[in-house]
Design a protein that fits this description.
single chain; 553 residues; alpha/beta; Rossmann fold; 4 domains; 7-stranded parallel β-sheet; 20% strand
Length: 553
């Protein structure tokens, strides 16, 4: 009798994968191509098949036969017929609507399914886009390329865009074989693969999409690889001025670009150069809600050949809208998680592109590319006087009272002692809380008010080991380059944000000689504990062991 397969496929479109099975790794790689990982605790990993996950697979040319044959091959039992039927139907939707270039400034939308064609023709919300009806579709203005794709995916009809991309102004960019310190530099194998999968030799089917990799795995380096491959003027949009400086430093350190090739478009400097780096906050700046966005025209007033969206899961709505107008430019999103708290994953698919490449966190950990991490949640009671305040507070105030539990201070002190030989980050949501910790523990503090020069000095001292512990506000959530940190103490967070949990854990995942420790401090039996469940589940889903301990003050 042959060995039972590692998969159990359920009629609700979830798929369970047995981790201990000899064919686990092979099957995991197979599932990653067309299913969404829901959770990955120790023994059974759960995946889900959705229309969007199958559109992503179809967009990167994974065949339906490959999917169905693999499900039959790996499944322990016969796959439910309704699941196979739904997979066939959902997969088949992608490719029925094809967008191609037409003469002049027009594009042709061809619809191969007469039922879908009739529905689209009757949809009043779409009629404004049609310049002319054709026997199998419509002609549209090239300026509506993004608007049409966005509107159609909202009603369940993804568009296969074969219009290709304009070449931006050229600039010669090559990756260096050594960095500025003289150390050897080369893309890791998965980074090279991500670049190849995105670019697809310049074909119209490539050139746009999302790279999903954990923090610390070198997503910025993949961005450098893409820039060198395309060698066009590039706009990089990131989350903060600190991230702007990090991108600039990496470009100067690892490519042949010179300082005069790189522009920074921030509140302090507004310089547009062949490679320009800016922030989402800058692009969405306006004096009042009634005023226009002052700088969104940076998308269209320069001949970009590539636009990179760093931390694309944070893409704000105005930048989504601007992105609809630049569909002729290559677009790449970088992220550690495609989870969006606003549920706009389909918008990312339509306007940036499909998920082109991802590697599970634990896979890179097993290969030594990111650090091994241990996650612990400490639960402690509120002191009696704070418990009284909590009981009488309005719902909105309760979370903050719990988050700023003064008992956390003593626990922080103990953790600092336990990790006296480590590099420690203490991070919190509330300024008053982190200020008190820094003052009490006599530790340096970085908040949004800290001058950039002072931040840079503290980060450098931390990297060198001149200081071993640093207190930071939520300003450190994104793209803070602290490669030597191996302990994170999270004293408070943004409710149950999974995005934030991914970013904070990522701050300590860069590879190092010792394991990393991620501590979350939570007030027991409060709203903070209830919100923490979301964050806890996210880490468990990524495959991390998560222990919960009680702490007595």
């Amino acid at each position: 009798m042959s060995d039972p397969g590692p998969l159990i496929i359920q009629s609700d479109h979830t798929i369970m994968l047995e981790v201990a099975h000899p064919r686990y790794a092979e099957c995991r790689d197979f599932l990653a191509a067309f299913a969404e990982l829901v959770k990955s605790p120790e023994f059974i990993h759960t995946y889900r098949v959705t229309p969007l996950s199958l559109w992503n697979a179809a967009a990167v040319e994974i065949s339906l036969d490959e999917i169905t044959e693999g499900l039959n091959r790996f499944s322990r039992y016969e796959p439910p017929s309704n699941v196979i039927s739904d997979i066939r139907e959902w997969y088949a939707v992608y490719g029925r609507l094809i967008l191609e270039k037409e003469s002049g400034n027009r594009l042709r939308l061809s619809v191969s399914d007469p039922v879908i064609l009739n529905r689209i023709r009757q949809d009043k919300t779409l009629m404004r886009f049609w310049l002319e009806k054709t026997p199998d579709g419509f002609l549209i203005d090239s300026g509506d390329r993004g608007n049409v794709k966005h509107a159609l995916v909202k009603i369940g009809y993804p568009v296969r865009d074969l219009c290709g991309y304009l070449s931006g102004d050229a600039i010669d960019v090559k990756l260096c074989k050594k960095d500025k310190d003289g150390l050897p530099f080369a893309l890791r194998d998965y980074q090279r693969e991500a670049v190849d999968v995105f670019y697809q030799s310049g074909r119209a089917a490539g050139g746009s999409g999302i790279i999903v990799l954990p923090c610390g795995s070198g997503k910025t380096i993949i961005g450098l690889g893409i820039i060198s491959r395309i060698s066009n003027h590039t706009l990089i949009i990131t989350t903060s001025n600190i991230s702007v400086y990090q991108w600039r430093d990496e470009l100067l350190d690892k490519t042949t670009l010179r300082g005069e090739d790189i522009g920074e478009f921030t509140g302090m400097t507004k310089s547009v150069r062949p490679i320009t780096i800016t922030t989402y906050q800058m692009l969405t700046y306006r004096r009042s809600k009634e005023d226009p966005f002052h700088y969104l025209n940076i998308f269209t007033e320069h001949n970009w050949g590539l636009i990179i969206y760093d931390e694309v899961h944070l893409l704000p709505a105005p930048v989504f809208r601007a992105t609809t107008a630049i569909q002729a430019r290559r677009r790449m999103g970088l992220t550690a998680t495609l989870v969006r708290e606003d549920g706009k994953e389909e918008d990312v698919f339509a306007l940036i592109g499909p998920r082109r490449y991802d590697v599970p966190w634990k896979t890179l950990e097993s290969r030594g590319f990111i650090a091994q991490a241990f996650c612990t949640e400490y639960r402690l009671l509120l002191p009696p006087e704070e418990e009284l305040r909590y009981a009488h507070a309005e719902k909105r105030q309760r979370f903050r009272i719990a988050a700023e539990n003064p008992g956390k201070l003593e626990l922080v002190r103990e953790l600092l002692l336990n990790h006296r030989d480590d590099k420690i980050l203490i991070i919190g949501q509330y300024i008053s809380q982190v200020e008190k910790i820094a003052r009490t523990m006599k530790l340096p503090l970085i908040t949004g008010k800290t001058k950039h020069a002072d931040r840079g000095k503290l980060y450098e001292e931390f990297r060198k080991g001149d200081i071993s512990a640093l207190v930071v506000s939520k300003v450190a959530n994104f793209a803070v380059d602290l490669p030597d940190a191996n302990v994170m103490i999270q004293v408070s967070g943004t409710f149950g944000s999974r995005q934030e949990e991914a970013q904070r854990l990522g701050r300590i995942l860069r590879p190092k000689q010792k394991p990393s420790y991620f501590y979350t401090l939570v007030s027991r039996e409060t709203d903070e504990q209830r919100f923490a469940v979301n964050r806890q589940i996210f880490l468990i889903e990524q495959g991390y062991k998560y222990q919960v301990l009680s702490y007595q003050t």
